[in-house]
Task: structure prediction
Amino acid sequence: MALLCGRNERWVAREMDGAVPKLELRGLTHAFNAIDGQRGFVLENISIAIPERKFVCVLGPSGCGKSTLFNIVAGLLKPSEGEVYLDSAKITGMVGCVGYMLQKDLLLPWRTVLDNVILGMELQGLPKAAARERALPYLGRYGLAGYERQYPAVLSGGMRQRAALLRTLLYDSQIILLDEPFAALDAQTRATMQAWLLQIWADFAKTVVFITHDVEEAVYLSDQIFVMTRRPGRLKAVIDVPIARPRQRDAIDDADFVEIKRKCLDLLTEEGAPLDPAPAHAG
Amino acid sequence: MPAERRSGGRPLRVARNWSGSHVLAWQVGIVLVVIIGWELGARADLIDPFFWSYPSKIFATFKIFVAAGSAYADTWFTLRATILGFVCGTLSGAAIGLSFWWSRNYARVAQPFLICFEATPKLALAPLIVLVFGIGLTSKVALGIALTLVVTTLTTFMAVRSLDPDSERLFYSLGATRWQVFCKLVVPSVLPWIISSLRVNIGLALTGAVIGEFVSSQHGLGRQILYAGETYDISLIWVAVSILASLSVVMYLAVGWLEKILLKGLMHGAAIR
Result:
């Protein structure tokens, strides 16, 4: 725990009171050597503990290093300092431990929807036929019935994201990282997808970490919100969202909801966002 | 309520599309006019028949070439050289291009050589290639490969570089090995690019074969053209060139068809049987 310091310690300590966290980030710092020889910090000393089966959001202005944080957790990037723990086991720099989904659906155009969804299982060495058999009922249950044998080109944006999310979920990991998955969708589809995500999260009982810069989305979806500062990204605050589940769409008008939303907005506004234009290195 | 017409506005004129038969009629008409004009011009001595020959004489030569000459053997020789050069050049070019995905450093080392070889006029090497590989089929195939290989390599390399890094990241995050990423992501993504280079390559391979035959050969349409030129048999030149042109069109159509089949197979190859 020597890496922990300053105000981050408070949050970690509080989380540590209960059970062992599912996912824990300890003192993650990521820096690169800029052209002028200076060290540029993308992330600075991020420590977060996430309990099992919780839905948490990472909320921050564009360019605060949220995606870098995810790349580190997913093992795609080695942090300059700090460690990532899954069930108290160190997984820093190891791929294949967490499911991962981006704003881009990245469906492979030459594979059917079903074959796209089984990609994770297939890469794990499961025979295609068995993987298809396992995935097929999920496609039907989660709004892709009738599209199993179609190619992604015929799907709408929302359906593509459903397929991408199912691909992530069916990959056998207990933690799912979602990096602004609905940012490219129109408002209406987005609202549908959020409700759909909450349902699927309840069904699958996984731990979800969700990146967004949309305050309403963060409050509507999550149990806990980690607000980040602008670059270099530090943890600014942790906000609990004690709104009962299952949440209906009209929960966004509740006094609690509005209060939490205002708090988040205030925190973000202190950071000069979201009014400022996005910097070149988008979050 | 009628909208007020703004000053300076004018109706957009859109040309009407001709029907298919209308277009075809024009095309046939142009061919007929050229052939008849050529024939009449030559007979009226407006066109020197010694240097340009004329259609009826060319047709007569064609009949002799087919009946008594080596038309089939020559065409088959050129066709074989072309197809072999095309297949070998395209496959090895694609393989080299794909190999660059495996190591960025290796790709960086190889790049200037690739560009050098691309810039070299490969046909200038024809005499050397014929010396090394002999006057038989091998030298023609080698020239076809020399022409198609680099183009395909560069196309494939460009395709490899334009891969979405996020897709690769997704594969790795799902625990894929490099070999899996290569087979399941890189090759299928790059295939359409390779397929798009087929049409260009078939033409290049044919050029390679004909040039090889020009330099030194005992068979082939290129050799017939060279021989006819040396003996001032202008009609035979036209005959051989016409056969070459027909060959080229047929192969182009065949490759176009192949391209369609491959692209379709690529999209539906993963379908559930």
User: Anything to note?
Assistant: Residues 187-204 of chain A form the longest helix (18 residues). Residues 1-17, 273-283 of chain A have pLDDT under 50 and may be disordered. The beta strands of chain A are 23-33, 39-50, 55-59, 81-86, 89-90, 99-101, 175-179, 207-212, 224-228, 235-240. The radius of gyration of chain A is 19 Å.
